[in-house]
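INFO  loader      accepted 1 record
INFO  loader      residues=250
INFO  predictor   begin
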Amino acid sequence: MEKKESKKKKFGLIGKHISYSFSQDYFTKKFEALDLLNYSYENFDLEKISEFKEQVLAKEDLKGLNVTIPYKEKILNYLDLLDKKAEKIGAVNTIKFTKKGLKGYNTDAYGFKKSLAPLLTKKHKKALILGTGGASKAVAFVLHELNISYKFVSRNPLKNEFSYQDLDEDIFLNYSIIVNCTPIGTYPNVEEKPAIPYEFITSNHVMFDLIYNPEKTAFLHEGELKGASISNGYKMLEFQAEKAWEIWNK
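INFO  predictor   done
INFO  writer      dumping tokens
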């Protein structure tokens, strides 16, 4: 049990359209369980990142923030310091208020690695990353650490990336890990799923969806029908939240 504190400490999440937020519920319950009566967690729903200073930094007693879609990369311009791992990844999902200013961290990578690792076997050597946003950068960083080669799949592919139209049976034979880093399929649009050829998925595939609401997305449901190993993003969120808590308290 952590000691009670009398001084107010505020934490929060910055993002866009985040009323569904995992973080606010998770940390509010955590503070209650630890009897941290003066701790609170607030959602900062920003229409654009330029509102960050006025809407967020003006608040008193802020000690730490989480960052979600679509600001994990855009927030970099507002930080004073970057953790080495966050700098390598190029995206931030955790901010600590320090004496030297705002310091950015990436705990998505930690959370993804901890939740993906139990699903992998020696046959899983190549991965497709659906989407190219901030979360996909953390996923790519982890895959590199695990010596798993990867390709991004994008609606507007750059050189060395696949388009969704490129995906065929041969690619699916070679790439046995598929990670959805897009918001497609998030509640309430639960019928939607990324436009990949699901008929080529086999029991050799691992399908990981960063979405956690619904618990089983249409993307994961398709994988399950084919016998693939599946996981949503809930465990990843728990792991990254605990790592953020550790950072705020060190």
